[in-house]
Amino acid sequence: MKKSLLILCILSTLFNGFCQTIGKQYDASPQFKPGSVKQYNYWVNQAELAICDSDFQRASDCYDEAFTCHLPFRKDAYFAFRVNTEFIRNTDRALICIYSLIRSGEEPTDIIDDTIKNASLYETAKTLYLNCKKTIIPDLHNEIEEILTSDQAVRKNNSFCSADDKELERILDSVDHNNLQRIKQLYKKYPLVNVYTAGIAVEHMEIVLRHNAYKRGFPLSKTWYKEVRKGNLNVCDYMHTSDNCNAAAPDKKRYDEYAKQNVYQIGNTLFILTPDNLKKIHRNRQKVFCAETWEETVKKAKYVYSEPCEFYFFPRKNLVSTDPEADAQDLREKIDKGEVKGEYIVFN
Q: Under a CB-based contact definition with an 8 Å cutoff, are residues 196 and 135 in contact?
């Protein structure tokens, strides 16, 4: 425990520096240089590859390296927590993960599923929760929550309307456009918008962006591009949101910048389609400090879509089809004939 307390003191120093940057004046200076964001993404990528190989000691070591470069993103801290509690039993490192998650607004019961099995760790987590200084800016958090509530409420309240109802389309578009403008204003009002200043709500803003994509594409592309390079956005989440929005956009001019639309499941078949412009994909990824190569994307995809999967590095994508069996068979044949580049795996 002495070692874990020492580590927490060091981490607390980092967080105190971060707190100063989001003080009453909301200092816009980035907490970390771009180089540290790049190194962070490198080590997280190595940790995820180690998990794919079931090398959990290496995964823990890589996460530990990453967290010395940059404040952990919520998903990474949670994965590292699970690695350190479920697979290698490293309490010192688990406490660092808990501390990071609490700072971003998580409660002990959100982090530790089995509070009886991990009773000692849970008691420590409760103490940390009560005593550590939170970095959430209440006004920012509440504004994002209001936007998300508005987005869902209009859809729930108008769910009885038919899909081709023009009035419904007008209402949804008006609310979506208004919510988009409100998100844009957040980045002008608050220089630091991330999980440590806004909580988990900031990760759900992509829902509003996807609802706007069908008419407006990805209007926050320049803002989020800067934010991901500054380390305020998780690079994996950013790339998925960017590709999803651009794929839904009316013109599709920038479709498939990061090749996050190329992995999906139809029926019982996983398809991994090789991009035609791999060199450009790699350059685009490098610009946002993504360390993951296409070959590593393929490796992670096979892990994420396998059963059982312990860690979802990204969400599974299942294409809806009226006849999934026939559509999957058709695409399998095209890959076999070389008409489509890629590979597939048929699950039993």
A: yes
